[in-house]
């Protein structure tokens, strides 16, 4: 199973957003301290990140805003026509049946980004799948994403309480450059970053995404030295 830039736990997701924006010089020390002193919820932090879209592209903090569209980023409908077809497809009954989705018949349609769920924690599910089902899990993050940032995923991965078998290690792409970093946990969990990738990792860094996912599917370690 693989999860890319996913919301995993509302507590760690919220804290990770604030810490990421502060560590990347997007919010001030004062704002960071004031937010951390309040009741920190992921919804509040995601709203904060979305509000900053008027200033920067929080889906990809490394990308400068264009004159025509402040939301244009790799993987958005501005440069990916496939996005326009995703929502209608995911709401088709036959598609949901094939994906074993919406078995509880939710009263609202599927959306790419929705705020119907205010609190969440899928960490117990991940831990149960690893411990009970022997399922290998890859959780990866684009390190340029400010909406569901790498800090949130790091905090959530640590919260699982699994032993580390391979600590923070760089992995290399075919261009002999660092493609990201990985940490491997006991039981079959791999946490990896994709260097320079935005919120939609495959759209913004397709070659590096193919490499990290391909190695995971083949149950092979990523190259830790240039090749």
TrEMBL record:
* Entries under InterPro entries matching the protein: AB_hydrolase_fold, Peptidase_S10
What does the entry list under GO cellular component?
A: vacuole
Looking at the keywords, is Protease present? yes
The UniProt GO MF terms for this protein read: serine-type carboxypeptidase activity
The superkingdom of the source organism is: Eukaryota
Q: Is S-adenosyl-L-methionine found in the keyword set? A: no
Q: Which keywords describe this protein according to UniProt?
A: Carboxypeptidase, Hydrolase, Membrane, Protease, Transmembrane, Transmembrane helix
| Spans traversing the lipid bilayer | 39-61
The stretch of residues making up the signal peptide is none
Q: A Gene Ontology biological process annotation?
A: proteolysis
Q: What's the family?
A: Belongs to the peptidase S10 family.
Q: What is this protein called?
A: Serine carboxypeptidase-like 34-like
What species is given as this protein's source? Tripterygium wilfordii
